[in-house]
Specification:
The protein has 289 residues and is an alpha/beta fold. It contains 8 helices and 16 strands. The structure holds ribose-5-phosphate (R5P).
């Protein structure tokens, strides 16, 4: 078995190769002056079983295209199996036709990944697991809660409460809460599908003098976390920490959350960011030993 770290996941791909003791094969990549992507495998892959690790952020459109080029090149070049690992799967929030006429983007992308030649598909904390049902090949969601909970255990939290900012991420809070043996629960969030404006309600959680850990699958603009944090601080929380699997942190997100009184932001390395302190490499590697 060989590991190919795609251009967007050099560090995680390398760590996975180290952990499973597999050879790493590099990728040459560049952009043509007109913006097109160029991909080249630097060694022979014929006859090999390949684990391809390639995340889809930043620049999700470009990363998705690179992913398709990589899968198809590996197949064309004679790899016997291509096991695709996408640590952060972009577009997974568009898993439903929320408004008439919308594209169900994640379904389109999954069909393309399969058509390109993927034999197996793995991702970490996909927004909703049901979207993996679009695949006919083996498709598996890995839970970052395992590595996140281990990290939180070492933080010396005071009477921790694990909070999901909405019902959608309650499963994440539940899994972490169970691993830590602490209370967990959720706020209620509503998003205007046209303007994107968020409102968060949280009258059922008593945060007084507690360290509250807000958990979510991803942080994009930081609006969800900022709104939840304000409510918690007004409710007397001692410390508020946000932890997510995918710290996308678009421009201004960090400042928005800090402005709401957030004490700390943590994320995994499914995408690279200044808060990506928790590695998912051991979690991924476990699938291939
Ligand atoms: C949505 O349901 C997701 O789980 C996240 O809560 C959301 O996408 C975070 O976005 P933002 O950081 O822009 O509020």
């Amino acid at each position: 078995m060989i590991v190919v770290p795609g251009p967007s996941s050099p560090k995680v791909g390398e760590r996975v190769a180290q952990i499973i003791g597999a050879k790493k094969v590099g990728v040459d990549y560049k952009n043509f002056p007109d913006g097109e992507s160029y991909i080249r495998l630097t060694e022979v892959v014929k006859g090999e079983e390949v684990v391809l690790v390639h995340t889809t952020y930043p620049q999700p459109d470009k990363r998705v295209l690179e992913l398709l080029l990589l899968i198809n090149a590996l197949k064309d070049l004679g790899a016997t199996k291509v096991k695709v690992v996408v640590p952060y799967m972009a577009y997974s929030r568009q898993d439903t036709r929320f408004r008439d006429g919308e594209a169900v983007s994640i379904n389109t992308i999954f069909r393309l990944i399969e058509a390109a030649g993927a034999d197996e598909f793995y991702t970490v904390d996909i927004h909703k697991e049901f979207s993996l049902g679009e695949f006919k090949i083996k498709a598996k969601n890995l839970y970052a809660t395992e590595v996140i909970a281990e990290y939180l255990k070492g933080m010396g939290l005071h009477e921790p409460y694990i909070l999901s900012p909405d019902k959608g991420a309650l499963d994440i809070a539940r899994r972490i809460g169970k691993r830590l043996g602490t209370e967990y629960g959720n706020f209620e969030k509503a998003r205007d599908r046209t303007t994107g404006a968020i409102t968060v309600k949280g009258d059922r959680v008593d945060a007084r003098e507690r360290d509250v850990v807000i958990t979510d699958d991803l942080i994009s603009t930081g609006g969800t976390i900022a709104n939840a944090c304000r409510i918690l601080k007004e409710g007397g929380a001692r410390r508020v920490i946000a932890v997510c699997s995918h710290p996308l942190l678009v421009a201004g997100a960090y400042e928005r959350m800090k402005g709401a009184g957030l004490d700390e932001v943590l994320g995994t390395d499914t995408v690279d960011s200044e808060v990506s302190k928790i590695s998912v490499a051991p979690l991924i590697a476990k699938e291939f030993v």
